[in-house]
Amino acid sequence: MSEYVIDTPPLVALPIAGMDALFPVRRVYCIGRNYAAHAIEMGHNPDREPPFFFQKNPNNLDPSGEFPYPPHTSDVHHEAEVAVMLKSGGTNIPIDEAESHIYGYALSLDMTRRDLQGEQKKMGRPWEIGKAFERSAPVGPIHRIEETGPLNEGALRLTVNGETRQEGDLNQMIWKVAEMISYLSEYFELAPGDVILSGTPSGVAAVERGDVMEISVEGLGSMSVKVF
Questions:
Q1: 64 falls within a domain
Q2: Residue 1 forms part of a structural domain
Q3: Is residue 171 one of the residues assigned to a domain?
Q4: Strand order in the sheet with 221-227
Q5: Tell me, what CATH number does 47's domain have?
Q6: Which parts pass through the membrane (predicted)?
Q7: Looking at the domain assignment, is residue 4 inside a domain?
Q8: What is the spatial distance between Cα 150 and Cα 43, in angstroms, rounded to a whole number?
Q9: Listed residue (210, 113, 211, 114) closest to 161, CA to CA
Q10: Number of structural domains the chain divides into
């Protein structure tokens, strides 16, 4: 006899480059406006201020290479990011120990229903309707930190149908990965399986059905995602 009154939801797990084993996902934290140029294009101050985070759901992460255009929107934007996967966690993690908790990195997109997000901002409401919809975070295979080393710099680029939309470098992040881990651990108890999306450079823009997005980051290769 089952101990649960309904069927248990499937565990979200992501592929790892060169391995058959999968990475189980616990939580997904996303930092907002972590590149100065992106903060400016969104109409905000680019100065270093305390970071802020929102969350996506584990099952928003999608390694399929396809992105279904979501309902109730006419303005879906791409945001090219790097996902950071944690192998361990805790609270009040010192910055100089933060990188020891990283399992690896992956290419990712924070797809955003910008029109719906904008409406929520005007009303002072949470962003989830614009950020945490189904399959809103396309993600590539995870590359272990033992193979990549800590990724604190490296060119990031996103094209749509071959046209460059976003370009930047990981060293342009206002809050570096170690700082994000340390800061989050002051407010949450981080744990194995947690994922952090590290923000996007400028150049975010709308996509349409039929578009092909390609994101590349030095050290992580490239990933192609088709909008349908």
A1: yes
A2: no
A3: yes
A4: 66-67, 221-227, 212-217, 155-160, 163-169
A5: 3.90.850.10
A6: none
A7: no
A8: 31
A9: 211
A10: 1
